[in-house]
Specification:
With 466 residues, this protein is mainly α. The chain has helices spanning 4-26, 32-39, 43-46, 48-60, 64-70, 73-92, 97-125, 131-159, 164-167, 169-183, 197-220, 225-247, 261-290, 296-301, 304-324, 327-341, 353-379, 384-422, 427-452. 55% of the residues are buried.
């Protein structure tokens, strides 16, 4: 048993590592236009610094539960932060775009293992009746990272080289690695399991084909038979992966958690929630700079209120779930999120920066109100032996959905812009139309989430035999 002091320092160190890696997820968003100009790539290509990062993280996440159960937590966390440090150093020194992308992909490997560790460890060291509050508090750290990433990047690229975005992460990563040696305890009993490599290859191969084919649509502006073939192959490979998991005694991802109806619904709603948030965090800074014509610093400052609101809402949301359940919280959160998303479809060069700032802060606060309770609602429908698998699967599916949502949003922007140019619109008007298409696609995610919340029960209970 850990003492309160040991618990505090362990959770603090793990959350600091999670914050750093989550912070890096959106750190480049406001710097993408600058990187585009310096390395000479298109908007559709440069967004792979964000989408590729998320995809690699999502492809790595299926290994998280295996690694957590097979290695001591201290050693695992040290290794992942060291990999993150390596990727950061490569990106900081990158002479061209391919090397920069390589550094980002290496960072993504570490994030793919790190992100599921936090909810899994918290679920193990805190009882079920405290999980809502604890997850809410951890949400401040984990969610505020992506929220303030674009703000910091905007300020940095206005005054320094974009390389500074990576350089500032190097000493922080070193401090976390050192702190891990003293603060992190091995709360999971390590046992050696056989890794099913067929599952690893089918998961990564199927997801990789699906996302790459989606990106190709945005680059080419059309749907070809080759793209269709890649998508069909990707879906078949993913289906084979899922089928195999049910046949294995020790699957890479424990798909049996989906036998719990409340887990299925809660996990799906959390997925829709976070993917719509992350897609907007990618596209809004680009809209601010390319359509509103504000500087990276101003674009970053426009996102600060959203980070503040999310920091305030996260602990309140977790505590409210513990006290009153999820029904009202989810309806209000997803409903307000939809109301704040819809106007984005009509944003233009005449839209004021103040309007964008206020509506985005309202949207982030509303969706964040629902996110942590939805996660806890899903996990509380599982017996304790499945909680780690359920937590890992939620984070895994969310990360993959984030990557797909980013690619979808960028693809819709590219298609909308090409459609506008084909109709004879000016470059600015066509670009603006592209963002309308992108924001409309994001709005559909929010609408679907709002419809589904009415199927929630107020509290979940264990729905799988112990």
């Amino acid at each position: 048993m850990l003492t309160k002091r040991q618990k505090f320092w362990m959770v603090f160190t793990l959350l600091l590592g999670s914050f750093t890696t989550a912070f890096s997820e959106t750190l480049l968003n406001n710097g993408l236009p600058t990187i585009m100009r310096e390395v000479g790539v298109s908007e559709m290509i440069v967004q792979w610094l964000s989408t590729g990062y998320m995809l690699i993280a999502g492809m790595t996440m299926p290994l998280a539960a295996y690694l957590l159960n097979s290695f001591k937590l201290k050693h695992l966390f040290t290794a992942t932060m060291s990999i993150f440090l390596l990727g950061t150093m490569i990106a900081a020194c990158a002479p061209n775009f391919p090397i920069l992308l390589l550094g980002r992909l290496i960072e993504g490997i570490a994030v793919g293992v790190n992100m599921p560790l936090i909810p899994s460890v918290l679920s193990l060291i805190f009882p079920a009746n405290q999980r809502g509050t604890v997850m809410g508090l951890s949400g401040i750290i984990i969610n505020i990272g992506p929220a303030i990433g674009p703000t910091i990047s905007g300020i940095v690229v206005d005054h320094y080289s974009w390389r500074m975005l990576f350089i500032i992460l190097i000493p922080v990563s070193l401090v976390i690695i050192i702190a891990t040696q003293f603060a992190v305890k091995n709360v999971v009993r390590a046992k050696t399991d056989q890794l099913d490599w067929v599952s690893v290859f089918t998961a990564t191969g199927g997801l990789g084909l699906l996302l790459y084919s989606l990106g190709r649509i945005g680059q080419t502006g059309r749907f070809s038979w080759q793209i269709g073939l890649m998508q069909v192959a990707g879906l078949i490979i993913v289906a084979l992966f899922v089928r195999r998991q049910f046949k294995l005694d020790k699957p890479l991802l424990e798909m049996r958690v989906y036998q719990a109806p409340s887990f299925r619904l809660g996990a799906l709603l959390a997925l829709l929630n976070t993917s719509s948030l992350m897609a907007t965090e990618l596209m809004l800074p680009l809209f601010n700079q390319n359509i509103l014509k504000v500087t990276p610093t101003v674009s970053g400052l426009m996102l600060i209120p959203s980070a503040v609101v999310m920091a305030i809402v996260s602990p309140i949301a977790g505590r409210l779930y513990d006290e009153i359940g999820i029904k009202k919280i989810a309806v209000i959160g997803m409903g307000l999120g939809l109301v704040a998303t819809a106007p984005m479809i009509w944003y233009s060069a005449q839209t004021s920066a103040g309007t964008v700032t206020i509506m985005y802060a309202l949207r982030c606060g509303a969706l964040n109100l629902a996110y942590a309770p939805l996660t806890v609602y899903a996990l509380n429908s599982l017996p304790k032996k499945y909680v780690v698998f359920g937590s890992t699967l939620i984070v895994n599916m969310n990360q993959i959905a984030d990557a797909f949502a980013n690619a979808m949003a960028a693809t819709m922007q590219s298609l909308g812009k090409k459609s506008g140019l084909a109709r004879g619109l000016s470059s600015l008007a066509a670009n603006s139309l592209g963002y309308h298409w992108s924001f409309a696609a994001i709005c559909v995610l929010n609408l679907l989430g709002f419809i589904l919340v009415f199927w929630l029960h107020n509290k979940s209970r264990v729905e799988i035999a112990k």
